[in-house]
Amino acid sequence: VPEIAAEQDSWLDEQLIVAKSGKYKHSIVFQHIPFYVETPDEPKIYFNFLPELRATMLERFSEAGICKVFCGHYHRNAGGWYDDKMELVITSAIGSQLGKDKNG
């Protein structure tokens, strides 16, 4: 739905301006689907973002000074770093695990 997407993108722009303002010691994001699972340049899989959108969002978040992005969706522990400034943390599920990680 283009109208809702535009409204949400506008809201995100406002939040990233606040994050970049320097008013906060740490700016973090919680989202369900991770941008990537292991590396920012990995190919598209079920568990991550399309590469073009991923690159755009990672750059926007990094420019705003976001230092951590916490995600789920993967049902395993994973993550990595973007530009050595922003850590992506993927936590395993509370219930159904897809890998060897313990739940919780």
Write structural notes for this entry.
By secondary structure, the protein is α/β, with parallel strands linked by helices. Helices cover 31% and strands 19% of the residues. It has 2 helices and 4 strands. It has helices spanning 2-20, 51-63; strands at residues 27-30, 66-71, 78-82, 86-90. A 4-stranded mixed sheet has the order 1-2-4-3.
Chain-wise SSE layout:
Layout: H1 2-20, E1 27-30, H2 51-63, E2 66-71, E3 78-82, E4 86-90
Parallel strand pairs: 1-2, 2-4
Antiparallel strand pairs: 3-4
Shape: globular
Please trace the helix and strand order, writing H or E for each element: HEHEEE
Biggest sheet layout: 4 strands, mixed
Percent in strands: 15-25%
Brief description of this entry?
The protein is α/β, with parallel strands linked by helices. Helix content is 31%, strand content 19%.
Which short descriptors sum up this protein?
104 residues; alpha/beta; 2 helices; 4 strands
